[in-house]
Every structure is written in C-alpha cells, then in structure tokens.
C-alpha cells in the first residue's frame, strides 16, 4: 500500500484553497489536474509503497513522537520546479520551527522503513499542471492571485493511505496522532 504522513487541513483552510483553485480554473488558460478539496493536506513525509507487515511498527513509532501544537500561516503561491517549467502549483507555508521539528522526528522514526528521501519543503499542492495554452498570460494571472495570510492551529498529524482511482487519487486517514 502507498503511504504518506501529513497534516489534514482544517475545513476553513480547505474551503479557502478551493476558492483559489476555482479562480484559476475560471481562466481556462491551462489544463490542470486539481487536488480534490477533501484531499488538500500538508505532506510531512512520503513513504511510498509499504508492506502490510511493517504497518504496526510504523504506527507504533509515530505514536511515540512527541511534539507541541503549533500555528501555521499561508504564504503566496508558487510553482515547482520553476516558472520556466511549471509542473506543480502550490500555496506556501510560513516557516515554523515546530513544524520542521515534527518533520525531523518523523524522518528519524521512519528512516529504515522507507527508501524515499525527498527534502522537506512546506507547501500545499493545489494542482499538477498538464498543459499551458498561453504561458505568458497564465503566469500574469497566476501572479495576480493574492493569498491571505490565514493562520490556523495544528493539533495532530496523520498516517494516510493513497489509492489511485480513475478520477484521481483518494486519501484515507489510517490513524491520527495528537500533538501536546
């Protein structure tokens, strides 16, 4: 099964990000595979395929992680890898030491359970860009979208299972872990 560890966003943040997605959808300048509203999250660690027999060990290790609750704040939008080769559209997250501390603890706890080793860049993926019809106009409109610096409390993180469906990925929370 394909797994990742992340933060399920509060409903009001999902609603706000969904409004941003709709603003971009309405310009019809690009073909984008949008992250479903219910799937909007912050990935802390992508684990990839994991055998069922390692799941209980993973859950036990995650339950032993101690970290304080913290607040996150939205930052302006960006594109990975860059504007010359736009592939992923995202909303940024203001640097928060407790978030990076949690992510480091998760990395350390899962180092022998996953072969995935991507560096952590706190962001919320809105969509994956498949085709841009007019790059100059698309980037102009993209840059005009202003993101409010909304602040929200993080009280827990979760272990997610990702299932590929015809209409797009479906994420299921397998277990949640409270922060102190």
List keywords for this structure.
five-stranded antiparallel beta sheet, globular, 180 residues, four-stranded antiparallel beta sheet, alpha+beta, 9 strands, Cyclic Phosphodiesterase, Chain: A, 4 helices
Q: Which SSEs are present, and which pair or pack?
A:
Elements lengths: L1 E7 L2 H15 L4 E5 L6 E9 L5 H9 L6 E13 L2 E9 L3 H14 L12 E10 L2 H10 L6 E4 L1 E10 L2 E11 L2
Antiparallel strand pairs: 1-3, 1-8, 2-6, 4-5, 4-7, 5-6, 8-9
Apparent shape: globular
Q: What is the domain tally?
A: 1
Assign the CATH class: Alpha Beta
Helix fraction by DSSP (H/I, runs of at least 4)? 25-40%
Number of helices: 4
- Measured by DSSP, the beta-strand proportion falls in 35-45%
What is the CATH fold-level name? Cyclic Phosphodiesterase, Chain: A
